[in-house]
From TrEMBL:
This is Beta-1,4-mannosyl-glycoprotein 4-beta-N-acetylglucosaminyltransferase. Keywords: Membrane, Transmembrane, Transmembrane helix. GO terms for biological process: N-acetylglucosamine metabolic process. Pfam families: Glyco_transf_17. The keyword Transmembrane applies.
Length: 387
């Protein structure tokens, strides 16, 4: 503006006048940014550019834990079991044991069929079959050249069959080819193999009212439990078995699903081999659960990549041998998961590493008779072979 013949240019620090109001257009692009940021203080900017990305990254790393911790808010607990007390002592007669359970005694024992899908658990299968072989009429085993995740797999049982000569006369063995469908849900392949096992059970010659054990290799019923069920009359047609984590000095929370082992009185046309809750009856303290009980770190890695819950391997470093060894000795969770419980009290109570157990009482006889071979399964022996 002109004043007394002189030009006076008045400076202003309101750079937003032309962006947010009337003023210069010379530095329009810079002014827009400064105008936008002018409404934020430093704390807000710090939260936006630092806090928010860290929050998103934290959700990415620990989202699974957060979901499991909040389980009581979005999922109700399953229906409780009708728990049947379990009575046993070697000096009590079978007639009295049946009576204690509210059952009668049979004139002759039922036949028992033990059916499993086999992956690579050679040591655990030896312990299982040595525990059960006095009471089982027919062992039924199916293996595939495919893991549940569609990876090519050696026929481990076929390679180690010599170790199982003691059941050869009572063994029905089958092989099913994998489907190798890329990108498929692993539970689809698992279901396919279980259907094939159901057919193999019929080939093995099972008849009505024979007992059929449905469980994974690492879910081992005790021999005296199976002997009780084959001799007692009027037992439930379907009965789940409570299998405790007795066999090793470390445990994994994700394996808190012992009810999946079950025994069925076979009904042609109705009984189907399955691995989920099928009844409300649960016989207490009926055996052992020994998931991830491997001699070698490489076997841990194989199972982690092969079984249906491969989605729990969220990061590649989960498969790092040094990490797996550290997790075993700390008694921590292999997949860095929280307990699968339905109340905050139970979740918090079970958080953190599990103390090692120093009890080796009531373990399978074959294990204790061969401690040099199975030392890694006994208390105080957390170190694993690397190969």
């Amino acid at each position: 503006m002109q004043e007394g013949g002189y030009y006076n240019s008045k400076k202003t620090d309101d750079i937003c006048q032309d962006v947010c109001g009337p003023a210069s257009r010379a530095a329009l692009s810079m002014s827009r940014l400064r105008c936008i940021l002018r409404g934020f203080d430093h704390k807000a900017l710090l939260l936006l550019f630092v806090g928010l990305p860290l929050f998103i990254f934290g959700i990415y790393l620990h989202g699974q834990k957060i979901t499991y911790f909040l389980r009581p808010l979005w999922e109700s607990p399953p229906k409780p079991f009708n728990i049947i007390p379990h009575y046993y002592h070697e000096n009590v007669s079978m007639e009295n044991l049946c009576k204690l359970h509210g059952w009668g005694i049979r004139d002759t024992p039922r036949r028992v069929f033990d059916a499993v899908l086999f992956s690579n658990e050679v040591d655990i299968l030896e312990i299982r079959w040595n525990e059960l072989h006095p009471f089982v009429s027919e062992f039924v085993l199916l293996e595939s050249n495919s893991t549940f995740t569609g990876q090519v797999k050696p026929l481990f049982f076929a390679q180690n069959r010599e170790k199982f000569k003691f059941v050869e006369s009572r063994l029905t063995y089958g092989v099913v080819g994998g489907r190798f469908v890329k990108g498929e849900n692993p539970f689809v392949e698992e279901s396919y193999q279980r259907v094939a096992l159901d057919q193999l059970i019929r080939i093995a010659g099972i008849n009505e009212d024979d007992l059929l054990i449905m469980s994974d290799v690492d879910e081992i019923p005790s021999g005296h439990t199976i002997n009780l069920l084959r001799w007692c009359d009027d037992i439930p047609h379907k009965l789940h078995l409570e299998l405790r984590n007795y066999l090793y000095s470390f445990q994994f929370y994700l394996d808190n699903r012992s009810w999946r082992a079950s025994v069925h009185r076979y009904k042609p046309g109705k009984t189907r081999y399955a691995h989920f809750r099928q009844t409300d009856d649960l016989l207490a303290d009926s055996g052992w659960h020994c998931s991830f009980c491997f001699r070698r770190i490489s076997e841990f890695v194989f199972k982690m990549k092969a079984y249906s819950h491969v989605d729990r391997v969220r990061f590649s470093y989960y498969l790092k041998p040094s990490r797996i060894q550290d997790v075993i000795c700390r008694g921590a969770d292999l997949f860095d998961m929280l307990p699968e419980e339905y109340t905050f009290q139970e979740i918090i109570a079970k958080m953190g590493p599990i103390p090692s157990s120093y009890s080796a009482v009531h373990l399978p006889g074959h294990l204790l008779q061969n401690v040099d071979k199975y030392m890694y399964l006994l208390p105080g022996n957390c170190l694993r072979e690397s190969g």
